[in-house]
Fold:
Amino acid sequence: MACVYIPVQNSEEEVRVALDQLPRDASDILDILKAEQAPLDLWLVIAREYFKQGKIDQFRQILEEGSSPEIDEYYADVRYERIAILNALGAYYSYLGKIETKQREKEEHFILATQYYNKASRIDMHEPSTWVGKGQLLLAKGEVEQAFAAFKIVLDGDRDNVPALLGQACVEFNRGRYSDSLELYKRALQVHPDCPGAVRLGIGLCRYKLGQLEKARQAFQRVLQLDPENVEALVALAIMDMRTNKAGGIRRGVEKMHRAFEIYPYCAMALNYLANHFFFTGQHFLVEQLTETALAVTNHGPTKSHSYYNLARSYHSKGDYEKAGLYYMASVKEINKPHAFIFPYYGLGQVQLKLGDFRSSLSNFEKVLEVYPDNCETLRVLGHIYVQLGQMEKGQEFMRKATKVDPRDAQAFLDLGELLISSDTGAALDAFKTARGLLKRGGLEVPVELLNNIGVIHFERGELELAEQSLKEAVGDGIWRSFIEGKVNVGAADATACNRIYKDVQIFTQLEADNVNLELPWNKVTALFNLARLLEQLHKMEIASILYRLIIYKYPDYIDAYLRLAAISKARNNIQLSIELVNDALKVNEKCPNALSMLGELELKNDDWVKAKETFRAASEAADGKDSYSTLSLGNWNYFAAMRNEKRAPKLEATHLEKAKELYTKVLVQHNSNLYAANGAGVVLAEKGQFDVSKDMFTQVQEAASGSIFIQLPDVWINIAHVYFAQGNFPLAVKMYQNCLRKFYHDTDSHILLYLARTHYEAEQWQDCKKTLLRAIHLSPANYVLRFDAGVAMQKFSASTLQKSKRTADEVRSAVAELENAVRVFSQMAAGANLHYHGFDEKKIDTHVGYCKHLLEAAKVHCEAAQREEEQARQRQELARQLALAEEARRKAEEQRKKQLEKRKLEDEQKRVQQQEEHFRRVKEQWKSSTSASKRRERSDADDEEGGHSEKRRRKGGKRRRKERSSKSQYEMEEAEVDDQEYEDAPLNYGEPADQMHDQDDNAEENAQDVLAAAGLEDSDAEDEGVPPPNASRRRKAWSESDEEEEERRPESSPVRENSAELQESDGEFGADNEKPNQDEAVEDED
Amino acid sequence: MKLAGLKSVENAHDESVWATAWVPATEARPALLLTGSLDETVKLWRPDELALERTNAGHFLGVVSVAAHPSGVIAASASIDSFVRVFDVDTNATIATLEAPPSEVWQMQFDPKGTTLAVAGGGSASIKLWDTATWDLIATLSVPRPEQPKPSDKGNKKFVLSVAWSPDGKRLACGSMDGTISIFDVARSKFLHHLEGHFMPVRSLVYSPVEPRLLFSASDDAHVHMYDAEGKSLVGSMSGHASWVLSVDVSPDGAAIATGSSDRTVRLWDLSTRAAVQTMSNHSDQVWGVAFRPMAGAGVRGGGRLASVSDDKSISLYDYS
Structure:
């Protein structure tokens, strides 16, 4: 039992004070000490003992009494002990100041401490222990440099002063000069080998900081050997164990932490680490307990920050973002420089992101990035935030940087791809592909979503084979594979089932009965749907429909599958089934705008106008008017209504048109790049005659539409063509129609052929017009209107040919043939009119027949004339031939004569002259009226020459001549006659039709119409599609039809488009759990 | 099985070629290919060089259909003006001109025995049967009309486009604009039943030469259906064309069918897998007709020929093996 003996004054006796039995009231002891004038060191001993026993008040009481002025006076010469007492008080107050958290009191403590030390210094400037104390104080105050100076003074005096060495080591440690610090600790240990474990702790820490982990470990272990309950060493070792990142190490570390915790439950460091550990094991309750304790016991900023961080993290992972945010904030507040401890910034950023506070989040992540400029995740998050803030470029820049920083981070490429999907599909595809490559190389399973996205992008870019590959890979193995490969026989359907083939699920029940596994994992549904959509694009409708049905069979709520099936049956014109399927979809969700819109379309197809309008309204309401499609449909409805009214109610028409325009404009305001709305607006403009504006509009729409595989907008081509047509630019209109036919309809649309025919008609290219109409008839044989139009075209061709001033007989003949064809066509129609309904007025056809027949009769004269002309031509040729023959004969005869002449030259000249004269006279008489040329004279000369020789021959020649003459005159006569006839007949010939044709001359366009009007053939706009008056109604009809088609096109593409929209939207969910954004997204995706 | 292009004749006609048929070989000459065109002519070609044998004029408005008598001696051609011209193949002498106003003429076919010519009568919603000896109209098989035709229906839904004889000559099938196929008992001149499943025009029909009940139909809905024509059931449905299927024919061995489509391709389908095995895209416009050459004699394998005609004015010949 330790005791102190207080010597009794003026005696040899001593008062024995057992140190473990110090009186509770220090005044008792003080009284004794004062009364006996005990040496000051005893005061110190007793005070220290009180301190050790935790009786701080008593300790302070004694020391304060021991440093009071009267003591100073009384013990003036006992310098060392007085200094010791003051130093003890100084040390006590520095300690108080060090642990005090409140700034003001902290400072007060430090001030007191400083005062005591200064007092001690006044007693002896050179007392080393004072300097050591001052050093400690300065260290506690964080004034490292001054502390260094203080310790240096001591060490200069005595380089082996252990406390100074330790202090200096501490200074160096704080300055970050760990090797210097280590040296100092080592020296302290050399000087004082028995010093407490704490010294070795310092060594261990230095070694740790210097990265000499093994030596550090040894040092810590040595500390523990000396003092098995040294918490710091335990914690240090535990941390080192944990840092090994191996399961065993972590377990050992946690065990050590536990021990440290048991030894001293208030070590904040240990608490934090334990909390950290329990965070990872998911024991959030413990985390909160431990960190709260840690917070209660420490005032050390970084440690507190760490505790707050742990707490925040715990709440964060529990999804309590508000609280997590608060604690992160608290944690951040404890940090002076982000460099020291960056994690809470990251966490805060995440929470803020989650709570939608993008700007704050951004600044926090940027701080993280300052510290770790190459941190991929931070770069990615920043990228996302910028995207959320609408700064696409910047977002992409960050994403790109992230991929550059770590070109093997599949996740970064994935994110980049998702980011790019809306703006640059090509780049997105590259990113996705890289991600896929990385995952594959890493031996990881490529997520279905990624493959699906790759597939969809390929699909969108029209690279269908690649898309198929990717999507097939995405869906993997399953029953669908057998369907695609045709291994499962789809089976026969009986007569009643054939019409409902797309609703048949019997095959699946059958397969299930055969124990075939039909499992379809939820995460593959989207990919399977897209695959089916792709097969549809590849025209493998059967397989596509089975896949859709499989989806419905397994997931009866998958509306898009119903709609696709409905679209397929609609494309096959199975309207009834299509309506049923849409109704199935509506059973799942009666407010699904897509389904409602589709239903409206189908009702329109069924000519159910009022119902359709209601349905479109409902669709529009279901989507809060935000669904452009239903608005557009309503616009179209109004447009049709305006155009449909055959009775022409201008007022109604104007209202409908205005309404249509309003609706189109509404859509355009919502989505200024909506092609369909622009097209519609263009149509309304064109309707109002503003062709230039509408043409510009159409052209722009056409350009925009040419980019994507999903946008099939032939209507705009047709509309442009219509505008060209309306402006009289026929060649361009023809070109446009033809391109459109070829590009979009595989040349199968008889309507466009009809437009084309009409353009040819207007351009007066009758044969082209007829051929075009025949093609149209061939495509759509049941359309009698086309036959009628063909008849009209032929009639027009003939009429215009006959009316030409110059024409060949062939032309006339072909005109007549065409007229006969026209008559046949018309009369066939007339005969068939009773038999079947084709919307023609019998009378009208009769009128046409009558007109054609009349024309035909008139043409007969032409025909005869032409034939006569031809006959004449033939005769003319014959004559020429005969003339040539005669010439030949004459030449021969002449030669002969010449020979004879030679022979008879010597014969009587006199006689010959006489004869010649006579003959000449005769000849003169004979040819008086003849206009024979010199040739003839020549011949007559020759005749004269030979004349007299043979009467017989002469007579012969005369005869021949006569013959010649007669034929010649006949010819002339004939010619004259023909001429006469022609001149005379002209008015007679043409008779009635001639008037018409003159009209035609004047007025190439209106003619037929006028005539027809006169003949009662008006009223053509409704039925007579080929030959309407050249006013707007025809065009309108055309437009309205093309619009109808526009509507047909749209729903086809919409489901997948929406799908991809889903993919894009899923980006928004980033951040809840930053480590795994993709899984989250997968969920969103499939939902 | 596969197709190999043998020969193509560009500008075989001045205009679109719309119809084709093989004239069976006679003792004097091999089988000939018959084609009809919008240019109002019918041409005869000698395989395999596709040398032009003769050009027959005499039609007005485009030639929409050609058919050959099984004997190979006579043939018929029909045009939009609704005349059928029956002529001697070798001399081009007109044997008869048939018309049955107001009925139009679309597809036509001689029965397997050669005693009757069946003509699809368009808007008359009937098939006209002509005796090939006397060239008299012997029967009109009418497609039953729906009870109450809706006034809003444009045109005639039962417009008959295509016609096909069963190999035994007992049944006639006809396809109409609304996609229904009607089956008739020829001997009794009686309508039997409809085959449903198409809802768009059926432009071509053909019975399998091997399985007498099996009927193939080509429709504008881009599908080819396989029906059991007696059992009224849809055996299978084949899709793959991007547009209308305009023509279908079965190979003489009954193992494959060929189709021609508006998507400008000719496809060969393996009936055992019901999948397209080959797609020929040598035509640059719609393919209006495909025709397998009938087997020259029993037991002759190989040497199969397929001809196709197109809007691009060309005709093509392929080797089928």
Summary: The first helix of chain A runs from residue 26 to 36. Chain A is about 75% helix and 0% strand.
